[in-house]
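Entry: LGFP repeat-containing protein
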Amino acid sequence: MTTSTQTLATGSAIDDRYNGDPALRALLGAPTGPERESEEGGVFLRDHAGPPEGPGTLYSRAGTGVHEVHGLIKETMWNVGGHRATGVPITDECPTAALGGRYSHFSRGGTTPEASIYWRPGTTAHWVHDYGQGGYGIHRKWADSDWERGRYGWPTTHTMSLENGWYNHFTGGDWQGASIYWSPQTGAHGVNGLIRGRWAHLGWERSYLGYPVSDEYDIPGGKRSDFAGGCVTWNSATGAVSDSARC
């Protein structure tokens, strides 16, 4: 459905934000076309020329306000399917706490982030989301662990589908690698470091271990992660990592 340009051009939420925010105008540059309503209705957007950081778009949806996407985040958003895939932005692009990165949060409904796109200098941007994961999925798990500052670190893949679940790979908070896997039977759990390396060597969720059913936890003399078919244990004294169907 397309609403007339005349109606949208007079006092729309997008116009109000753009006209009242000099920094936003400098970031996005001039509009390159009229404001329009998305086909599904209720989402309004306007494209902008976007110097100095590349083309941008302003989005408006009732209840979440007006927010922009531009540059690499916008490019990634559209590469994965646009706002129908990611949801609309519910923040402007924001700086991360460290490493000069940037992020935007998205949602298909409401004001709670259900998806995010993150990048840091020298890397591509990656999309992390909860969609299709029963309300508490990979994105929520990552958020609850303090985003890129936590035990899983920065995303290194998009959230990817599997035959019976989803996964995301991350740098790990210690830069030794981490993953979060979700399935309907097991929920969302993270696997880190050397334990993750062993599980990967065996074949990830396709191995006899299957999906993780716990996060990594401390045991006397090391750490362990539990899986549907067994466990993987790291021995802090020897550095050895072992897997077993009986734990």
